[in-house]
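Assemble and predict.
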Amino acid sequence: MFSVVLSLLLFAQHGVQGAQQCRLQLNKLNSGGGGVASSTPLGASASTGTATATASASASASATPLAPFQYGTTPIRGVNLGGWFVLEPWITPSIFNNTNNDGIVDLYTFGQLQDSATATSVLENHWSTWITESDFIAIAAAGLTHVRIPFGFWSVPLTSADTNGSTSVAPYTSGAWPYLLTALNWAQQTGLYVILDLHGAPGSQNGFDNSGQRTSTPEWFNNPANISRTVDTLVYIAKNIGGLIDIIEMLNEPAAFDDETTYPGILRQFWQDGYTAIRTIDGTNYVMLGDGFLGVDSWAGFLTYPSAQDVLMDYHEYQIFSVPELERTFDEHINFTCSSMADLTNFAKNNIYTIVGEWSTAVTDCALWLNGRGVGARWDGTYNYTPNTPLGTCDGWTGSYTTFSSSYMTFLRQYWEVQVMMGENVQGWIFWTWKAENADDWSYQKGLEGGWIPQDPSNRLYPDICS
Ligand SMILES: *[C@@H]1O[C@H](CO)[C@@H](O)[C@H](O)[C@H]1NC(C)=O
Ligand SMILES: *[C@@H]1O[C@H](CO)[C@@H](O)[C@H](O)[C@H]1NC(C)=O
Ligand SMILES: *[C@@H]1O[C@H](CO)[C@@H](O)[C@H](O)[C@H]1NC(C)=O
Ligand SMILES: *[C@@H]1O[C@H](CO)[C@@H](O)[C@H](O)[C@H]1NC(C)=O
């Protein structure tokens, strides 16, 4: 046990030294670094549970720190490890279905509406099987450089020394931390850089099931205790595992549009406070914020050099969550992507490094439960909205790619390429998502297998697609 913690700690320190060497981009204040990863060990929780055996085995296998990633020069090419630590009904419908309780629609209700022993055993099985070392090997073999790992606050084992608020995560199920440590270890061994993405905050930052809690009354923006606990969570991450990850993403998709008079200011303050807190602990991690659905231009001049350094912007693009977007033809989807590029490129050039941190080749909302467990699709009119204008059936659009037509697969390749181009016009891209139980239109793994995603991500069949 002890040696596991020790070798992970060594990783942490090597990782930090590696990161310090990479302070050579523009946008630097100084390379003082200051923040050698705290001497705090990785946490008692790292030495319990089945994950430790794996961590131990892999930890002793290799301790080679990665060379610093050349942000701004080398494009980030990556995949999200969606549905692993933050489950979503559409990514793993079987896990939700198997509860035999229609009220279990997210991780919050997963913990709330069944006994905790059941929740824990189902989740531990999922954490140890959904993504394994062979996935990291396959991701690296596909020429990708980064994994973005969505993570919930409920998985971060704060103690009372780490927060002035409550340390309770109820009704969420804790216990994923050692599995994350194992994952960070696999990433290092396979040469993949990690973006750790805080995807779920206390109170929910957007009310989406992927924040952990599907609710029409998300509390995070209105609740200072939720916000300060979120900052404490980021500090814990920077302190304990900062040396094992490259980029700390402070919060995924906060829904600042829900109240356009007060939320943008609250979010701005949170980004500032989170950035400052992380920098106080550890000067070496890159820090990422998101546009809060306000458009990147809302953040012009914010956290730019020299008042801040090593900050990135995460922009997400989907074109399927409204009827007008679904109505676009294949050509119009591609054209829309082409026409989005200039703005993003200008923002990145004039402000901070920018990535397209979520996007996919899905062109319908047909994946089962994509809009929430028990909710239908706008595409086929099974989503309950007015006016209900179905565009067709869902047959052949999602599920197994063996049902996809060749013209659809040709489009998937074109749509993949044009979005890769959008990402590589700025500092890179992260596809959503590596795998899904039964939605191949969203799966990088299935795209490789089915041939619409090339094994070499620099390969282009349509280099002039926007011309
Ligand atoms: C849910 O489980 C039932 C049987 O237990 C099965 O008939 C049904 O197809 C499953 N649905 C999904 C979405 O997995
Ligand atoms: C708790 O509050 C004290 C006093 O305001 C402050 O100094 C300290 O930094 C806080 N600690 C955390 C972990 O938020
Ligand atoms: C977040 O805010 C909610 C709503 O006010 C509150 O009930 C909950 O305890 C807070 N959660 C945490 C972890 O602080
Ligand atoms: C492509 O997008 C531009 C800008 O939005 C628009 O003016 C043009 O009509 C579009 N062309 C097609 C073929 O959709």
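Strands lie at 76-80, 146-152, 193-200, 247-249, 286-290, 311-316, 353-358, 428-431.
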